[in-house]
Design brief:
Layout lengths: L2 H14 L8 H35 L3 H8 L6 H6 L11 H8 L2 H13 L1 H11 L3 H12 L8 E2 H10 L7 H22 L13 H8 L2 E2 L12 H7 L15 H14 L9 E3 L5 H7 L8 E2 H6 L20 E10 L5 E8 L1 H9 L3 H13 L11 H4 L7 H15 L6
Antiparallel strand pairs: 1-2, 3-6, 4-5, 5-6
Helix pairs in contact: 1-2, 3-11, 5-17, 6-8, 7-13, 8-13, 8-17, 9-10, 10-11, 10-12, 16-17
Amino acid sequence: MNVRVLYLILALALTACSSAPKQQNSVEQTIVNQADDAAAEARFSQNLNELLTQVSQTQNIPLSTLESGFFDAKTIPSIRKLVLPPSGAFKKNWLVYRKRFVEPVRLKAGRAFWDENQAYLSQVAQDTGVPAEIIVAIIGIETIYGRQTGNFRVKDVLSTLAFSYPETPNKAAREQLFKDQLKELILLCWSEAGGKTQGVTSGVNQSRLNACLNQNSSYAGAIGLPQFMPSSIRSFAVDGDGDGRIDLKQSPKDAIASVANFMKKHGWQTGMPISFPVQADAIEAAKNLADGEPQLKHTVQELIDKGILTKQQGDLQSGGVEPQSKAFIVDLPYPDKDGNDQAQYFVGLNNFLTIVQYNRSYFYAQSVAEFAQALGYKNQSVVPTENTSKKSGSKTASEKSKTKKLGAKKKSKSTEL
């Protein structure tokens, strides 16, 4: 049995079996609370130990190595409060959210970050097709370029949310999600410590393993400048500076390359817009189509026919956005000064959904779009159709985008954005 579990069970038994005389209500209450805390801590440790045993067996990692890394793992009560859903009286407020993230301090820091990494941002944008403004906007909104990366130990965060998630309707699903992330963290740190999966244990550095498990994260377990969860680090993070390791906390190049790779792998369409505001006289039409589902279900032509878009927006008439391109309605609610429900409406295209894959929030995605525009991003198609319309007209926007990208590469490898 895990030594930590045994200690806590003994502590619980001693508390529960205490024969000390009852003196005051306050003392009784303290003893009850101690017993409750000890019981919860014992359950936490038992569940954690079961997970470590499972990972040890399935990945053939020595259990003693994992126990050494988690011997001091603990629950963090404040995190349980932070993940609670808002109260029933809470109203989402797009205007307040936007003001928090698209604001002078972050924009100034964003321009400075761009200046410091201009050459590399240009290279990554050219190689991946993800604009530098988008990359800079995401890192700025996530952590203000490393200023706010969280101050909780990641193993404590994920353990708390995996085994002590607060009582909510989606508790089971959320706990499973964080159990999976905890397993991903273990495999990530095992690899960083020199271990290989399926049993190659030589050269494993326990200190390096512990340092990885103990690194700081957000209250949800996100790590580094771009706030990647462990699974995203393992799947999408890139060694941008070429030093042989991925460091999202200290290496801006690693963070830049990783964000771009994530966006590319999640379907970013080079040269395509993100979203367009709905026409003022078509708010009701847009409202009727806003169902909250992040799915591309309406064609651009359909939205033009309904008056929700115009051909002049972006360059829908002369650009690379085809009439049959898919879109959906984005609603961003806020209360007015009298507390009445209002909303701003946008038409989200494929690239909007790509940003939503990074953070599943319409507020977040539109903030990234507007932050990027404040940095100079042109929210319009950059793929001309005039020349291709004389031909067969069968090329898709994506194919024309790739043609544009390849042509740009042949012209220059050092074009600055």
